[in-house]
Each structure stands twice: as structure tokens, then as C-alpha cells.
Design a protein that fits this description.
By secondary structure, the protein is mostly beta strands. The chain is 8% helix and 56% strand. It contains two helices and 21 strands. The strands form two sheets. It has a 16-stranded antiparallel β-barrel with strand order 1-5-6-7-8-9-10-11-12-13-14-16-17-19-20-21.
Amino acid sequence: MKKLPFIFVLLSMISTLSFSQQNNEEKEQKKFGITFKGFVRSDYWYDSRQIVGSREELFCFFPKNVLPDANGKDINGEDYVNFSPISSRLTGTITTPDAFGAKTSGVVEADFTGVTNADINGFRLRHAYGQLKWEKSELMFGQYWHPMFVPEVFPSVISLNTGAPFQPFIRNPLISYKRYFKKLNMQLALIGQRDNTNDGPLGYNAVYMRNALVPNIHLQLQYKGDHHVFGVAGDWKTLRPKLVNDSLTITRNKISSYSAMAYWKFSKEKFTWRMKAIYGQNMTEHLLLGGYAVHSFDSLSGNESYTPTNHLFVWGNLVYGKKYQAGLFAGFAKNMGTSHTNIGKYYSRGNDIAYLYRIAPSFSWVSNSMQISFEPEYTVAAYGTPNNKGIVQNTNEVANLRLLLTFFYFF
């Protein structure tokens, strides 16, 4: 009977340890799962003329060219008003236990802008990726911003266009590897196409890259300091515009293009300054100007050869403040023509625009989870006639003023 108190004490200790271990396991499990955040966004805007845009013109590229009616009045000179909440967003951040000796994480993000203009209000996938992060390297797989976007350095503007068509705006299926060297990192990415695609004989379509059998290849070097971010990058892709030519025989003619980029950001306390420059060929899928043209056509074989357009894009962005924020965005794009002569057949955006520029100041008032923003956006396109090298001549400037009021409710 003397052994009973000892047994009770032992059982009590075992029970306490078991309960403690169970609590620790539950706490550990709570670290993993998915958490949601996002925002409700509602845009209200006025355009002084008709524009080239998408998603009910919420996404503004540039003003349309002059189009005279029967009396000589400009049809595209008519103004435009719209309201839209479709860019409201939901983001799920995923955390899971370590795998392959790496910290793991992931994101699934969607909004209501749809995949195409016909799919407005559709729940559209933006990002969906998993990530493995070791001490000195990182592997990402899924869909995310194209590396030309650069999440660390993009314009802080109110408009949904996020600086396009001067700043790339594109998400892609990809696999990306980063190697870290203290404050320096190097990224190599292999990239496909899905929602953002190149133009071609079948219209905008991802099949041109898939039929070329080669992914878009991107290499980037980036430095991150206490107040500075600086980077340079090179990008290369190949398209196969047609499987079958006009003579109904298989054609394997392709077009390759490259782009080069440099960017910089300085931030300290309430002040941020960002800038980027890109010299690029055939950048239609980035929602920029450009594409390619038919260089030559062989009437006997029915085969076409192609030549890319060349464009220069530069922008700068200043932002100051926290509760009360003031910003200024300025962008410029220049059409440098095609690499070789062309026969006047283009698969391109804005091939009749010689240059494009935009000035957009912004003002925001932030109060906890609410933000009210106002942004006048003035965009000018110089329309003309391209010659056989794609150089646009005899230009005429056309301007649009957008007045944008936006409400955000973050959660």
C-alpha cells in the first residue's frame, strides 16, 4: 500500500508532461496554415478623351488617335466616366514546416478583374507560388511577377496600371533560383506565358512561346543596402509565330529578342525615390509598346521572316509622407524602329506612336485601415506614320487627362 502514493505521483507527472507536450505540439501547429489579407478598392475616374485601355478602361495605356467623323469632328475626342470596384483583392499567405532543409512559404492571390475584358468580375488568379529558402539561396515555383517588374522597385502610383506602359506589368508561370552573397543576390529564371502574352497571327496567345520550345530566360543582379536598391538585368525570349505558312506547309521560322534593364531606389524615413530604364525588343506581353513586324515574305514558299521593334522606356517616381502622402510619377517611351526593314505588317502595340510620356502627381490620406487617394494623370502620345524601318514620322501629339479618385479599405 505504501507504493500507491508513489504510483499516483508518477502518473501525475506523466500526465502533466503529456499535456505539456500536447500543448507545445498545438502551439507548433498553429504556426502553420494560411492567413488572409487584402483590400476593398473602389475607383472613380474621368477621361478627357477615349483611351486605349482594358477592364472597362480602368487600366489606362494611352489616348486613342484622332478619328474624324463625317463632319470632321474627332470621335475619340469625346470624354468618358466610369466607376469600378473590380480590383479588390484577396491574398492568402501560407506557412508550413521546413522541407529539404529550407524554410517554406507560399502565396495564393486573386482579384475580380477577370482574365480578359469579357471576363470582368471573374475571380482571377494573380499569384500562386511556393518558396524554399535556405541560408544562402532561394527557389520559387508557380506564378509571380516577371523579374522585369522588380517587386523591390516599381512606381508607387494610384492607377491600376502601376506605371504601364513605361513600367512592365506582367505575371508569369516561372521557376526562379536566387543566390545570396551578403548584400548582393543573383537571380536566374525560366519563364512561360499564360495571361500576359505576345501578339501574333492568332492574336494575343501563349502558343507562340510554347511552340518555340524555349522558355523566356532572365538573369538579374541586385544589390540591397540600408537605403539603396540597385540592379541590372538581361532578358531573352524566342517565339514561333506560325506552325503552318500560307502554302499550308510546316514552317519553323522564329523570332528572338532581348531586353536590358537597370534600376535604382533610395529610401530614408518618409522619402522614397525610384527610377528604371529599359531598352527592349518585342515587349508586348509586358503591357509596353512594341512587338515585331514581318521582315520579308516569300511568295513561292509562303514563309515569313520577322524583325523585332526596339523601344526605350524610362521613368522616375518620388514619394514623401506616411499619413499624408504626396507622389510624382514621370515616364517616357521612345520608338526606335525595327531592327531590319519590314513590309508594313505588324504584331505590335503602338507601332504608329513615335513617343509617349506621362506626368502623374498623387495625393493620399491614410487613416489606419483606410486610404483616400487622388491622382491626375496626363498622358501624351505622338501618332504618325511608320516607315519601312518602323521609324514613326509626321507626328501629331494627342493628350488625355485622367482624374482618378480611389478609396481603399485594407484588412
